[in-house]
Every structure is written in structure tokens, then in C-alpha cells.
Write a structure and sequence with these properties.
Blueprint lengths: L1 H12 L18 H11 L1 H4 L4 H33 L14
Length: 98
């Protein structure tokens, strides 16, 4: 078996590269808008400034999204408890509705 394998790859040792074109060598026309966007993404920390729009966006993600998830979950608990006929539970110290 070893001899068969050696014979099957013997031609690879003596082969010379012919310089075939591969996918990476294709002439590609770059889009200036895509290139500018990619460059700005690579250097985002250099152009970032804290201003009103970034503060609003940060507040939305840092405060607003967790609050929305919390109120959605507690509402779901209340609905499920009501359908099951169970006394509503207090979630994270909140008062239960009687």
C-alpha cells in the first residue's frame, strides 16, 4: 500500500507550477462607497464623539431595552398567573396586584 501511495504522489513532486489564475487574481472593480464605509468602520474610534444623538442612542440601549424586556416579562407573568387562577407574584420587589 505504501508503494502505491508513493507512486500516486510521485508526479506531484516533479510538477511545476503553471501560474494558473485563481479567484483572488480576478480583476475586481472596487466600489468607492463600499471602500469608504469599510475604512470608516476600521477607524470608528477616531471619529466618535459624545453628543446628543449618541447619548440618546446609548440611553435607549442601556436603559430602555432592559426596561422594555423587564416589563414584557412581568406582564407575561401576570397574564399567565391570572389564567391559571394563581395569586399574582411580586417580581423583583414590586407589589403584587390584589
Amino acid at each position: 500500500m505504501r508503494g502505491a501511495l508513493a507512486r500516486s504522489v510521485a508526479h506531484l513532486r516533479n510538477a511545476t507550477t503553471t501560474g494558473r489564475r485563481s479567484v483572488g487574481d480576478l480583476p475586481v472593480k472596487s466600489d468607492p462607497h463600499v471602500e469608504a464605509w469599510g475604512t470608516s468602520r476600521e477607524h470608528i474610534e477616531e471619529g466618535f464623539r459624545w453628543n446628543n444623538p449618541t447619548l440618546r442612542r446609548g440611553a435607549l440601549w442601556i436603559v430602555g431595552l432592559p426596561l422594555a424586556i423587564y416589563y414584557g416579562v412581568t406582564h407575561e407573568f401576570a397574564v399567565v398567573d391570572e389564567r391559571a387562577g394563581v395569586k399574582p407574584r411580586a417580581v423583583m420587589g414590586g407589589g403584587a396586584k390584589e
